[in-house]
Amino acid sequence: MRDQLRVLKHGLIASWTVFSAFQTWKTWTFTWLSRLLIQACFFALIGRMLGSQQQVDYLLIGNVVAIMAIDATVVILLAVGERQAGTLALMVAAPSTHLTVYLAKGLVNLGSGVAASTTAFLVLPPLFGVRLPWPSAALVPLMIFVVGVSCYCYGTCVASFVLGFPSARWLALNLSYLVLMTFCGVNVPTSFWPGWLRAVTSVLPMTHGLAAIRAFVAEAPGVVVLGQLGLELCVGGAWFAVAAVSFNRMVRRGRRDGTIEFGG
């Protein structure tokens, strides 16, 4: 466990070094964050054009939470980038499981997503007349974090499959978060989809976490909110388990046939 935590710490430091080389607080605020806020506003304005405050509330809350999913799934690019850079073999040789190294590489982006989503939650609702149950609404960022962790595990799982096809990394990233935004209740209720598709969405991250946040904002009973958050954690854990198995298979295959240093 000590080695795992040590590698996680150094991976996080390395991740922050890379992140800060490309982003300053100014560029993050006025390019990345502003772009995400505008995206959420766009969908909220659709609700306003429909003349329904209920639609405004639904679309805004959904897209505020979806902001976090975009950043969380960037781990796909980071993981595949290690193989392209030829550093995968070094990461596998680290004194911990290789999954720990991969998880550490994207934690800064997860933090960026939670920060952006929380900022949107604090700034945008007053602009669109969305009523929040203050002061208890201060707990929503914690729920966003739970959803973020679940989406991060999902992104890590996708990355484990894309490692063999580095050229598909951008397609995998875009499809990964667009699937969540389309089917997990961001812009339309999951009940809109046919039964078989609802069953699929129930095992996708963000579905239950977003439902928990919506229920909390609507001041639903706490047991409903906690139940949905518990399901979100279970979904995230399942994606993490699949990621661990997939990474292990990739590493074993790479060691066996000598392709672990393949840059593709």
Automatic annotation (TrEMBL):
It is a multi-pass membrane protein. One of its GO terms (molecular function) is ABC-type transporter activity. It is found in: Membrane. It comes from the Bacteria. Its main location: membrane. This is ABC-2 type transport system permease protein. Residues 23-215 form the ABC-2 type transporter transmembrane domain. Keywords: Membrane, Transmembrane, Transmembrane helix. The chain crosses the membrane at residues 32-51, 58-81, 101-124, 136-162, 168-188, 223-247. Pfam families: ABC2_membrane. One of its GO terms (cellular component) is membrane.
